[in-house]
Structures are given as structure tokens and as C-alpha cells.
Amino acid sequence: MPRDHSTKKNPQDLRSARWFAPDDLRSFGHRSRLMQLGHAEGDFRGRPVIGVLNTWSELNSCHAHFRERAQDVKRGVTQAGGFAVELPALSLDESFLKPTSMLYRNMLAMETEEMIRAHPLDGVVLMGGCDKTTPGLVLGATSAGVPFVYLPAGPMLRGNYAGKTLGSGSDAWKYWDERRAGNLTDEEWVGLQGGIARSAGVCMTMGTASTMTAIAEAMGLSLPGASSIPAVDAEHQRMAAACGRRIVEMVWEDLTPDRIITPAAVRNAAVVAMATGCSTNAVVHLIAMARRAGVPLTLDDLDALGRTTPLVANIRPSGQKYLMEDFYYAGGLRALMKRIEDMLDTSCLTVSGRTLGETLEGAKVFDDDVIRPLSNPVYHEGSLAVLRGNLCPDGAVIKPAACDPRFHVHEGPAIVFDSYPEMKKAVDDESLDVGPDHVMVLRNAGPQGGPGFPEWGMLPLPKALLKQGHRDMLRISDARMSGTSYGACVLHVAPESFVGGPLALLRTGDRVRLDLPARRLDMLVDDAEIARRRAAWVAPAPRYERGWGWMFERHVSQADTGCDFDFLRTDFGRAAGEPEI
Ligand code: FES
Ligand code: MG
């Protein structure tokens, strides 16, 4: 039955009232346990109970400020008459987790959904930011269906070393190539190490983290402007408290996620992603998030938006110069959205209770080089293109703005690697027979093959090529790549080779052709030969025999449908709901 949103909720209608209101033995237990924590009856009874889902951990440097920030959120909840409880949620940090944080995105999503459903929560503030935490939290909270606000961690300060500004990820790759080419001393290398990440907050390039928080805000899931505020700016504390105040109102208004994540809101998020020069990972997560909300977003929809949306955020790695701190000073995401307002559906409702258009009123761009005018974009089309062909019948993605234009139409012989260690050994071999036209291929690196769809897609350039002075080459894999990566990298080849996608049939020496304007990626091998190879192909043994990996491998979908689990799909069946116990 559709929910009735026409009236404000009464205290007895709160979800938490089922735990705390009845005069029975179980409710007596629930109330007495909150009193055990030092709360008086009046602190929680009849008030919205707000879960503050905090992905803090001492192994998540991007969320280092979340312990204090949770206090700011709670302060806001109390100010608005709610009752705040902080709960830990799986802290997926991007830098330490092996084999890859992507193996665990769906674990966070499941945890979020089940913890919201199982606890007496009327509304939730989700605290995330580091890459997979945004989609993980949002996927779970969407399925749980209670009102929520997303509080992004915010970007860290610009990196700095020896008078040079450093960008997360991008500069690490760049200087690593210089080190491998023999151009950096040990001292310089250690100096870079200390200077590239100087404060709490997420990577400050337009990597996956800032792409995903921009997507969440554009979709209406964060308060206006929240995604651009640097983590250590005092405004971030004020924003945290504002989230706390607002979620209490949202509970009374019954402003549930199904009213916010509509097809138009998903489209807005995709347009904004393209205009910001988004990470390729955005494709996978946005598709998953849309589908959880019942919006059947496809790769083709994204390619179509990519063709019509100019890239206006001049932020690295797609932009040339600036970082997230500059973006904030230039007006941030609200200013960017104001600039492309004509491409957005401004009637979409946001968690603020106002329409997107209303939240953009008064937004201004303060620096036209950081947020470019439509007449002078960084790139005339959006940041992503979707390819198809006999190597990727279900699609592959490439970031045209981040690769040397000479690769946009390119043909060359393949060098194929079956595993990361095999490839690593070969690229360090200075006698490797490789030229600038070669196409380097890594397979068995997809959702099941990786396992977990690791960020290996920016394959390291062979030393032999670096020494010849080259800094880019065409690379193809069924892996993802970091949002801070760059180069002529074709990613997310679907179906992946591990499950028998055509990439599994490619051999070293076969010619491969990329035609970006035509959106094609093909191996120039005739069909009869491909059929022969297919008949001889033997499926590899599963990667896992037990545990989470076993479950992941059996239920994860391919890249083109967002890598969600088949049994978490919105159309899979009804959630168990809330049994009367
Ligand atoms: Fe956390 Fe990049 S490592 S956002
Ligand atoms: Mg990343």
C-alpha cells in the first residue's frame, strides 16, 4: 500500500514506539536498557530515535574526524528534539583492504540494511565518504526504507611537498613512474609520502570518493553543499549538526528515500557525475544505487548522457590543475549544478525538504577556471564513454578526457596477461618486446576473477616503454581503476573473462582495435577462430571454497548491472519486514 505522506507523524506512529511505547514485558526491557545507559524516560520516549551510522576506524584515515563529527551530528539531533544513538558500521577504507574494498561494498550494504531494520530507529544519518562507503551505506539504507541523510566526510586538504601541490592518487602514480625511470631520490620519495595526504578527509582529486559524494548530493540525499566542504573546515562541523537537526524533521515528515530516489533524481546524479569528470567507478555504483531504488539505469543511458554533458569541473585527474579544496572555494557542487541547471530536473525533492532548484537559489561560481562556463568546458562531452564490440558484448568503459587523444582511434597487437603477478613481472623486465602501439591486456580481474573487481585497470607501463619516454599506452582489462587514475585504459569489460567473456579468448599477438567515436572495441580475429577458441576454453576453478568470498562469487552480478547481489535486487522479493516479536 502506498504510504500516506500528507500528514505529519504523531509520536505514537514512530517506528521506535513499537519498542518503547507498549506496556508489556518486552518494552519494559527496552526502556530499562536505555535507562541502564543513563538516559531518562523522557529522553527517548515519544521522540524520533536517530541512528548515527559511523564508519570510523583507526584504519580509515579518510574518516579520522568521524569520532568528533558524530558528536556534532548528535548535538543537532538533540537540538531538534530527537534522541541520537551512534552505531558503528563497517569501515571500508580504500588504502588498506585487500584484495580490494569492492569485495566488501555489498557487505556494508547488507549490514546497513539489517542494522537499521533490526534496531528501533526512526531515521538515520549515514556517515561515509571513502570510496565504497557511500554506495554501501546508501544501498542498504535505501532498501531499509527509513528516512536518511547522507553526511559526506569531505575532501582532505591539498597535498604539498617542496613547494608543489600534490593530488591524491594521480601524483602517486605520476611520481612512481618517475621513480621507476630513475628520476627521484629516496629523500624526495619519502618527502612525497608525507606530503600527499596531510589531513583527515577523502582523496582530494575528483576520484571515486568525491564523485560518489557529489552523486549522493545531486540525487538529493545530502544537505545542499555538503559534499564539497573540506573535512577539517569548521563548516563541516556545522554541516554535521545541521544533518542531525534535519533528520529529526524528516522523521516527522516521513520523508522516505523512495520519495527522493526517483528516475529524474538518478538522471540528475548521472549528469552531475559527467560534468564533474567522474571516476569510472561511478558507473558501477550509480547503476547499483539506481536499481536498488527500482530505477533500471543502464550503461547505454550513461553513454547517452555522457555525449551531451560537458565536463565543466576542472579538477584532476580529468581536469588539468585543480583539487577539491579549490572546487569548494570556487562555489562547490551547488555552483556547478547552478551552472548546468538547464540540464537538470530541478523539481526533484531533496532531503532538505526543498526541491533541487530551491536549494540552488543564490549559488554562484567564484572562479571560472575551476568551474568552467559551458562555452569553455574542459572537455566537450562528459567524462565517460561506453564501448561495445566482440571483446565486450555487455559493455566496457573508458574515460576519454583522461587519455592521450592519439589513442581515441587505435589499432595494435595485444600482449595478454592472465594474472597480476605475471603482468607485474613482465612490465619490470626491461627487455620486454613492447612498443607504443602495443595493447596491454589483463584478464581474470573482474568481479569474480579478481576476486572482488580490484582497481588494477591502470596497468603499469612497461619499464621498457617508460625508458623510451612514453607515458601512456592503450590498456584493456576486466578490472576497475582508481578514480584518481588516468591514461588510455579500457575497464569493466563485461562479461569478465573469468566467467567466459570473450576477453578470455584473446591471445598475445592478436590485433585489437579501439574506435572511441564509434564506441567500438574489437579483436580483429575472425568468427570461426573465435568459435574454435570458445569450444576449447576451460572455466577456471572458483576462487573461494567458504566464507564471504564464496557467497560473493555465487551472487555478484557483472559490472554492467552494478555488481549487486542477485538476492538483494529490489525485484527479488519482499524483505522479511518487521515481525511482531
Ligand atoms: Fe579514502 Fe581515497 S583512500 S577516499
Ligand atoms: Mg579510490
From TrEMBL:
Query: Which residue range or ranges hold the Dihydroxy-acid/6-phosphogluconate dehydratase C-terminal domain?
Result: 369-563
Return the Pfam families for the record: ILV_EDD_C, ILVD_EDD_N
Question: Per the database record, which ranges form the Dihydroxy-acid/6-phosphogluconate dehydratase N-terminal domain?
Answer: 47-358
Instruction: Extract the GO molecular function terms from the UniProt entry.
Output: hydro-lyase activity; iron-sulfur cluster binding; metal ion binding
Which key words tag this protein in UniProt?
Iron, Iron-sulfur, Lyase, Metal-binding
Record-linked InterPro entries: Dihydro-acid_dehy_C, DiOHA_6PGluconate_deHydtase_CS, ILV_EDD_C, ILV_EDD_N, IlvD/EDD_N, Sugar_Degrad_Dehydratases
Report whether Iron-sulfur shows up as a keyword of the record. Answer: yes
Family annotation (Gene3D superfamilies) = IlvD/EDD C-terminal domain-like (3.50.30.80)
Record carries keyword Iron:
yes
What the record says about family reads: Belongs to the IlvD/Edd family.
Q: Under which name does UniProt file this protein?
A: Dihydroxy-acid dehydratase
Q: Which organism is it from?
A: Salinarimonas ramus
